[in-house]
């Protein structure tokens, strides 16, 4: 059964799990066992087969998270503009396809990671390899649960999918409380840390002890306010685990921020947990397709880019202190992360279109002889983004860029650029926030100040002095500048919204979430500038006429929980009933 035909409810995924496990990938996240020779009785017989079996979890079951990853993480949060998207307007409901696919993928990871864990547990192979693979599977299961509780709030805890199916009660599962889902996620990570090796300065891209510990720190920070007020014990745990990762893992920030997101650095010392995609593997879902949704038409030569009508928001431009209406020649970019996050008129990139000497943002739209891999660009090009900006993160460039970096060809909606979903800079800021106590608080904790400084100093190395103290608001803004468009910002609002909903609501309602196309269109302004060198945006302004500011009730409802997909509720009506306390005595590893 193809993965794309398995976009069902959590129940359908559970039933289909044994079929799904016929797809696995390898040590380089590329090789897999032949499908015509694999079955559960003749596989997991060697260390190599155990490694191949767990590698599938680094890509394929996550594939349908991609669109929800952006819509939930960045459109809700105000970082990404998608026109009349229900994610921009806070009107998304249970019939939304992207939300349904995201939910299905997360439950698929949850189920498949548990099944892989159980099968490797039974394998008669070298204990160190066996433990490593079991630990990796548990971290992926934990990450899926972490996404689920932050997105949907109270959700069922399904620990052993095989037992659930055998008991025949999968339509009778009740939701667990948020506190219990967080606690279950912590249990998974605690067990994973018992199994995983400690790799100092890990360079192989695989999950290890410190990967699990970093995620555990982030889980504790998120959990700290779930009761409605901040729990100091949870903050202390978040700081403790983050500190160990910072001081003992050997992980390091890359010198140049933009290098983190290049294919040549798919496995780097800053990345703690990543989706490692494969441009050529089967099943279809093993590949990265981010560029198709985020890049403007014609960005690569495969006819698969349709993201030109969307783009990084005006609100995010405001955060970086830039404005698309300003003459590009006068723009002052003091933060190097801006250009590595979003393209604006006048920008050029040496790491895209490398065979042509680099990528020129405006030339791409207005020179029809300029295009991917030296081919002519389509003659109907125009800058359609309502904010004038285009995403940079998650783009790989053209076919020759892909071949030069990875030695394999890209193809339509199939690229090998890894997606880093937990980075060391995030853990620096987790530690800093754990030493604070919510909005309005200040700390002079030396390590918290050092962590904040390291993240900011990399972005503004000659501008920003080391601070003697930092505020919550400093860290709050820094998280957005550092991690913007990486699928995480909405969950910052969820975290703070647990215990200080006014802060979350006010911050969202203060954003400029609409387009910048009132009056003369940005395309006309940019085309004139490209052809004449004259910038005149006097006839254009921010659009206040459409996409009204979301209401307080709408924001708070989504912070509490996104709606369950309608099909899930049909199959299990208990999802609409109150959550029940979970019996943790039933959990065994």
In short:
The chain has 589 residues and is mostly helical. It has 23 helices and 12 strands.
Characterise the protein shown here.
It is built from 23 helices and 12 strands. With 589 residues, the protein is mainly α. The strands form 6 sheets. A two-stranded antiparallel ribbon has the order 1-3. Strands 2-8 form a two-stranded antiparallel ribbon. It has a two-stranded antiparallel sheet with strand order 4-7. It has helices at 10-20, 47-55, 66-75, 86-89, 97-121, 127-152, 161-167, 178-195, 209-223, 232-248, 290-294, 314-320, 336-341, 361-366, 399-406, 424-434, 446-459, 472-483, 489-499, 501-509, 522-532, 552-560, 566-571; strands at 80-81, 271-275, 311-312, 342-343, 348-349, 359-360, 390-391, 419-423, 442-443, 470-471, 518-519, 540-541. α6 runs parallel beside α9 (209-223), α16 packs antiparallel against α17 (446-459) and α16 (424-434) packs antiparallel against α18 (472-483). The chain folds into 2 domains: 3-279 and 562-586, Serine Threonine Protein Phosphatase 5, Tetratricopeptide repeat; 289-415, no CATH class.
């Amino acid at each position: 059964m193809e993965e794309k035909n398995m976009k069902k409810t959590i129940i359908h995924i559970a039933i289909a799990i044994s079929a799904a496990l016929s797809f696995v990938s390898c040590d380089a996240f590329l090789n897999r066992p032949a499908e015509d020779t694999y079955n559960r009785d003749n596989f997991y017989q060697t260390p190599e087969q155990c490694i191949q079996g767990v590698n599938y979890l680094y890509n394929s079951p996550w594939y349908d998270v991609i669109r929800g990853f952006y819509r939930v993480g960045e459109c809700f949060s105000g970082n990404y503009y998608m026109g009349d998207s229900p994610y921009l307007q806070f009107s998304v409901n249970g019939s939304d396809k992207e939300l349904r696919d995201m939910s299905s993928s997360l439950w698929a990871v949850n189920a498949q990671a548990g099944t892989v864990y159980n099968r490797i547990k039974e394998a008669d192979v070298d204990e160190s390899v066996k433990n490593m693979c079991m630990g990796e599977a548990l971290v992926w299961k934990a990450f899926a649960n972490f996404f689920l509780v932050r997105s949907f709030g109270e959700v069922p805890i399904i620990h052993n999918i095989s037992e659930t199916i055998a008991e025949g009660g999968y339509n009778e599962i009740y939701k667990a409380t948020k506190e219990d889902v967080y606690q279950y996620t912590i249990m998974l990570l605690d067990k994973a840390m018992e199994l995983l090796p400690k790799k100092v300065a890990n360079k192989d891209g695989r999950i290890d002890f410190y990967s699990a510990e970093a995620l555990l720190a982030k889980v504790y920070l998120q959990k700290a306010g779930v009761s409605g007020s901040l729990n100091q014990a949870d903050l202390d745990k978040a700081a403790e685990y983050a500190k160990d990762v910072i001081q003992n893992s050997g992980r390091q920030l890359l010198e140049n921020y933009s290098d983190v997101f290049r294919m040549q650095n798919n496995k780097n010392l800053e990345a703690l947990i990543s989706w490692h995609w494969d441009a050529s593997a089967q099943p279809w879902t093993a590949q990265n397709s981010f560029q198709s949704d985020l890049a403007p038409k014609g960005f690569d030569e495969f006819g698969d880019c349709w993201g030109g009508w969307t783009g990084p928001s005006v609100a995010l431009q405001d955060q970086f202190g830039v404005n698309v209406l300003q003459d590009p020649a006068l723009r002052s970019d003091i933060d190097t992360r801006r250009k590595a996050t979003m393209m604006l008129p006048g920008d050029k990139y040496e790491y895209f279109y490398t065979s042509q000497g680099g990528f020129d943002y405006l030339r791409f739209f207005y020179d029809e002889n300029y295009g991917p891999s030296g081919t002519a660009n389509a003659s109907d090009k125009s800058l359609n983004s309502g904010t004038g900006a285009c995403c940079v993160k998650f783009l790989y460039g053209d076919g020759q860029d892909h071949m030069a970096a990875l030695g394999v060809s890209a193809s339509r909606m199939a690229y090998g650029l890894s997606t880093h979903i937990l980075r060391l800079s995030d853990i620096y800021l987790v530690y800093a926030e754990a030493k604070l106590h919510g909005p309005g608080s200040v700390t002079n904790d030396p390590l918290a100040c050092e962590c904040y400084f390291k993240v900011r100093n990399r972005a503004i190395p000659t501008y920003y002095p080391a601070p003697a103290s930092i505020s919550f608001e400093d860290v709050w803004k820094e998280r957005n500048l550092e991690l913007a468009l990486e699928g995480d910002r909405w969950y910052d609002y969820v975290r703070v919204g647990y215990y200080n909903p006014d802060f979350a609501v006010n911050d969202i309602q203060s954003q400029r979430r609409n387009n910048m196309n009132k009056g003369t269109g940005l395309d006309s302004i940019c085309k004139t500038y490209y052809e004449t060198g004259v910038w005149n945006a006097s006839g254009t302004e921010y659009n206040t006429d459409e996409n009204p500011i979301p209401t307080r009730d709408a924001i708070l409802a989504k912070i509490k929980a996104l709606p369950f997909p309608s099909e899930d509720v049909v199959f299990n009506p208990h999802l609409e009933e109150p959550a029940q306390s979970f019996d943790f005595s039933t959990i065994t590893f």
